[in-house]
Amino acid sequence: MNDGWELVIGLEVHSELKTHTKLFCGCRNAFGDEPNTNVCPVCLGLPGSLPVLNRAAVELAMRIGGALHCDIRPSLFHRKNYFYPDMPKDYQITQYDEPLNADGWLEIADGTRVGIERAHMEEDTGKSTHVSTTGRIHGADHSLVDYNRAGVPLVEIVSRPDLRTAEQARAYVTELRSILVATGASDGKMEEGSLRVDANVSVRRPGEDFGTRCEIKNLNSLRSLGRAIDYEAARQIDVIQAGGRVVQQTRHWNEDEGRTIAGRTKEEAEDYRYFPEPDLVPLAPDKAWIDQVRDGLPVLPAQRRERLAAAAGVAPGDVALVVSLDLDALVLGAIAAGADPAIALRRAENEVAANVDKGRRLAPTVFAKVCEMEASGRLTATQAKQVLGELVASGGDPEAIADAKGFRPLDTDAVASAVDQAIADDPKAWARYCGGEDKVAGLFVGKVMKATGGQADGKAVTALLQARRGG
Amino acid sequence: MTAIELATGVRAGTNQASVVVDDHLRRIAEGDGDIHAFNLVIAERARSRAEAIDAAVGRGEDPGPLSGVPIALKDNLCTRGTPTTCSSRILDGWCPPYDATVVTRLEQAGAVVVGKTNLDEFAMGSSTENSAFGPTRNPRDPSRVPGGSSGGSAAAVAAGFVPLALGSDTGGSIRQPAALCGVVGAKPTYGGVSRHGLVAFASSLDQIGPFAANVADAALLLDVIAGHDPLDSTSWPEGIPSVSDTLGDGVSGLTIGVVREFLEGGADSDVLARLDGAVAALRSQGADVREVSIPSVIYGLSAYYLIAPAEASSNLARYDGVRYGLRVDAPDIGSMYGATRAEGFGAEVKRRIMLGTYALSAGYYDAYYGQAQRVRTLIIRDFARAYEEVDALLAPTAPTTAFAFGAKTNNPLAMYLSDVFTIPSNLAGHPAMSVPFGVGDDGLPVGVQVLAPALGERVMFRVAAALEAAAPAAQVAA
């Protein structure tokens, strides 16, 4: 791909932590509240205020570290100094050269193991709104700042440059998001900004040293991430092939224009004057706390995929959706109760997923029963879907629901005679079908359905028609 | 009357808080026009507070160990609804929405805050000449500075305006003005008193402490304000021990070191002569006094002038005109920052912000800030070695007595040298206090400094009480 060029991608993902309160004060951590209502002297950076570290945020950060197979270790907070109106103290409290979590890994769905350099804690900034007729910062006559987000706890997860395609990058974020949700650390909502992604992208000939990278910011969706990486790689290849040199810089993704736009170059980069935050003491979780956090980790999505795939006899990639929907326990239970794995998976990712919150509460044995009724022909696929839909929504007994709906087991002779009757009733259509017009089958299926009161299985009818035609 | 006598009277009902407060407000009204110890006097609030205390006593309640005692607060301590200026124009119009923890503790102990005292802008200075609101005069000699940066608090106590005051000490800002004004001033162990509500200068060095006319009053005030505070992450969980009950314990059996490097540190001969007198007094009371060496203290001043400005450059970044205080309008945000800070900050604050910004810059960090932190580690180690041999240390507080206005304003380095003996305790996080001990050749007060290891306040106050008892008679506070 890319004419023999290889992409080298590393991702920096900022995840807001799902705590009740902010990182250094007792203000509510909530999205969408009235501006500047969740604020106090600490998160407004008023003179004389001091930060006090939120233990719950540390614990969630440690859970992320544990889930990413990181070394959880003694760490320090630093101040990152720069002036910006949405940052109340004009410095950000973050972790610099001694992060809480370091040296881990994450396995994406294709089996690639991506290194995690670090996952450190920091505070979020407020949000600026530039007020003007154009809505753009240039030409705005004033700006409004909402500090509700200032001081919200973040974990920044920095991958090693182990990703090689945009697709892998998307898979990495998808996997990371499911881990963050599974550990209870984040709600994973990219659209609300609780998960934000920056991508470092460079290109090289395979086997050569890394090329000069650019950091792409403002990637608010998986779609943006993929498009931006492909655009940026193509841009860099063009620059090199035209005899130029890639300049290390920050670039912003413009979703509307579908391109990245140059920001700061490294030479102009700000000097953040990091130094240890003197208002906080070192954060060194003891072994007991670390062990407790590791022991309390849920089974992670990759392990859950493997377990379900093994039980169902399929590839891990085939059960990714069911696991991401948190329906794997239901399917595993149904398989254990004798359900056909293929039917159970299909019904889980369709009918159960359609009402997923209630679906997760379905008893595996009941779910297995519906699958068994479909597999045995007691119910057609169409009927099984209806019974399942009602079971998920309202509960009950599968047999009773099927009976109430008048779903009687049809013997194959009855269906066969209905098929023969339909053929006899319309010889012209039958001739067209035999002449190769497959779509005419629909006409016969409809007639058979009508004749059987909707209880025949469409697929079975089609199969009979084909058999009558001779293939 | 001492603060203890005033509080005892009010608690017993033999004196009234209203009378005490009125008396002190009158002294301020009569005298502070000449001294300018106060940025703000809150007479009405103080009177109504005093009435509430009297009413409580009338109901048979005990308003606390500082019942009815007037106290002044350095104007970098946050007071809810009362302006807190740091003697800077940049905080123009700002009223904190909350009280510093020390203010809450004072009120719970029955003290009556009567006003906010002048300081060098953001506590940066050693003479109170760097105040945006004009200097404070030394009550012992109005042609001289009171020292600084807590010059207003020291002068308020020395002038008899208040029996007690709070200051903050980052490199000597309580002890040096206490020495120059002839009062007692103590910097507690770092983390002993909550910094919550103290407007930060250099966070790893700042500490709030008491001023009083005598050691016992200073001890009582420290006992009231000290203690763990969950709002300050650097606050000691176990807290510093109470000191008031140790003042009569004497120094017999204590081993006290005189720091050789401080004797060679450039103090005037009359200051050193008073220190000799202090040594003799302690020996005569049964202490074993010997010379000790703390080699790295000679680098303290240099390390301090990298660490303190570095932290200050970050702490003072928030004064940007966006949220509170002064704003000088300009066409864009960058120009607004620049114009606001250019107009809002005085020369010394700007000097330190630039110094600190430079010290933290990429490429210079290791050579400056990093090196200064290594010196700090050495100083802590050398102090620890000394404290294997001795219980406390003795040193001059300041190299000179109070100097004239303008004497050092054109030479920042000479001004910085005022703190050469006080800075090492801040770098180490150790307690230290200044006790008046006679006068210099110019008839102005000389202070002797007692240093102790971390959480060693009890031994420090024992030595201070012994020095006070032996101090030359001429040196009795007004």
Q: What's the alpha carbon Rg of chain A, rounded to whole Å?
A: 29 Å
| Mean pLDDT rating of chain A | 92
Structural Rg of chain B = 21 Å
The level-1 CATH class of the domain at 3-245 in chain B: Alpha Beta
Q: Biggest sheet of chain A, strands in spatial order? A: 2-5-6-9-1-10-11-12-13
- Count of DSSP H/I helices of chain A: 16
SSE pattern of chain B, N- to C-terminal? HHEHEHEHEHEEHEHHEHHHHEHHEEH
H/E element string of chain A? Answer: EHEEEEEEEEHEEHEEEHHHHHHHHHHHHH
Give a short overview:
Chain A is an alpha+beta fold and 471 residues long. Chain A has helices at residues 55-67, 166-182, 222-241, 287-295, 301-312, 320-324, 328-336, 341-352, 356-359, 364-375, 381-394, 398-404, 412-425, 427-434, 441-451, 458-469, and strands at residues 6-16, 71-72, 78-81, 91-94, 101-107, 113-123, 127-131, 142-146, 153-159, 195-204, 214-219, 249-254, 259-265, 275-276. Chain B has a domain at 3-245: Alpha-Beta Complex (Amidase signature (AS) enzymes).
List the helices and strands and how they pair.
The complex is a heterodimer of chains A (471) and B (478).
Chain A lengths: L5 E11 L38 H13 L3 E2 L5 E4 L9 E4 L6 E7 L5 E11 L3 E5 L10 E5 L6 E7 L6 H17 L12 E10 L9 E6 L2 H20 L7 E6 L4 E7 L9 E2 L10 H9 L5 H12 L7 H5 L3 H9 L4 H12 L3 H4 L4 H12 L5 H14 L3 H7 L7 H14 L1 H8 L6 H11 L6 H12 L2
Helix pairs in contact in A: 2-3, 5-7, 7-8, 7-10, 10-11, 13-15, 15-16
Chain B lengths: L2 H10 L4 H19 L2 E4 L1 H16 L11 E5 L26 H8 L3 E6 L33 H8 L5 E5 L6 H7 L2 E4 L20 E5 L2 H11 L29 E5 H4 L5 H16 L3 E5 L7 H16 L17 H12 L2 H13 L6 H24 L2 E5 L15 H5 L6 H6 L3 E8 L5 E7 L5 H14 L8
Parallel strand pairs in B: 2-3, 2-4, 7-8, 7-9
Antiparallel strand pairs in B: 1-3, 4-6, 5-6, 5-10, 9-11, 10-11
Helix pairs in contact in B: 2-3, 10-12, 10-13
